[in-house]
Prior knowledge:
The chain is built from 16 helices and 18 strands. By secondary structure, the chain is α+β, with helices and mostly antiparallel strands. Helix 4 (63-84) crosses helix 5, helix 14 (423-437) packs antiparallel against helix 15 (442-474) and helix 15 runs antiparallel to helix 16 (478-512).
Amino acid sequence: MLQFSKFKVTLILAVLLAGLYTAMPNVFSAAHIANLPSWLPARTVSLGLDLQGGSHLLYEVDTAALVKGKLDAVEDEIRAAMREKKLGYTDLGVKGDRIAFKLRDLGAIEMAREALRKATTGMQLDIADDGNVSVYFGETELAEIKKHAVEQSIEIINKRIDQTGTKEPTIIRQGDDRIVVQVPGVSDPQRLKELIGKTAKMEFKMVDEVAESTGSAPPTSIQLPVIDKDGAPGQKLWIKKPVMVSGENLTDAQQAFEGGMPVVQFKFDSVGARKFGDATKANIGKRFAIVLDNQIISAPVIRDAILGGSGIISGNFTTESARDLSILLRAGALPAPLTVLEERTVGADLGADSIEAGKRACLIAIAFIAVAMVVLYGLFGLFANAAMILNGVLMLGFLSAIGATLTFPGIAGMVLTLGMAVDANVLILERVREEMRHGRSPVNAMEAGYREAQATIFDANVTHAISTMFLFAFGSGPIKGFAITLLIGIVSSVFTAVVVTRLMTSIWLRRARPKALPL
């Protein structure tokens, strides 16, 4: 029967009111939203890059630099392993895509192989009969390193942008070693590049005091520049290569002020706290350097052992640079440098034109559909039109509630959904006409129409929903924008076309008690 219990009626009205409530802010401008009462929602639909403008960047992950860094680290391990076993060698260094050196004692080849096995785990080790040693990554290992570097870079870029409060950035892989970054609402790509492009590899190392006094240093030390007050590299200090503690052990970093000057407070995990405490305890009175991307932020003297696992990075910071550094440290270091291949700013004017075009398309589509439904089905066409408008409200409300991003393809999805919204009503009403031709009463004909058409409607929409879910799962950017609006529209159209129109029809039948249906 076309009867509804009070509970069902209340539930239907609650859903419609919730949709209207969440969709309401979208009809106001930003200035008006700020003046709305606090009990009204303030969240509007987030607009994508193609609608509100923003920044588009194409990065290339410098995997060659990543491999070079890994080879440098292995070189230090090889040097330590050879020294531990007291094996002589000459000309140790990174040469191209491999580490090469020559053994002095040809009789110690097997001993060298055993000593190097642990230091070169995951790498190819070749030792020739003449004592020449070559250590390198195989093709499989290189491919895995590059793949992991791109995946990790995408994750870290996402974290960095998220911490700025930017909504719905698009960060996707392109090809083997490229990353597309699209950030709606950000019109300054330079600011974005400074935040994304820094590797942010933080290391705590000891200053080589002997090299500083003599001017020469062993292979285990390196000269790095100190950042001056203008943010440019200044004088250089000799720094020991071994790392006291790395940024991987940081658990938190926050901007703060000390003596009125911006600083960055940091905190280590338990492992980092122990390493930092042991290192500072053993080197009281000596200097250590805080190194960021091979540049020294500061090089303070260790006055006392720092055992609490936390500290302060002071330097020539501005409020903004201290905030950016804390964001970079919290998000983690990029595994490899990023090179900008393409950058452009998308103007908001293009987005405004797209929105207006979308509005016009929606209004024209709704107008034509509404006229056709009234001409074909009379009063029940009006019910279908009311359900179609409610469907649009529910879609807008749900997009606002979940914070989904509306793109120009998403607008196309909305227009398509509104056009499809009346399909269910067409199926139902045609079925009702068929039942009337068989001599059924108005109530029985309407009940049979909804009952018999319902299975077909659900089957058709389930298949649409499944294909749309695959679009959302495997698509990216505009494809996701189209899929999310289409998926929301499918669900809301089934609700409005089947449930809401059935409620309206039930109310009309009870009040009018017609002897024949106006179809």
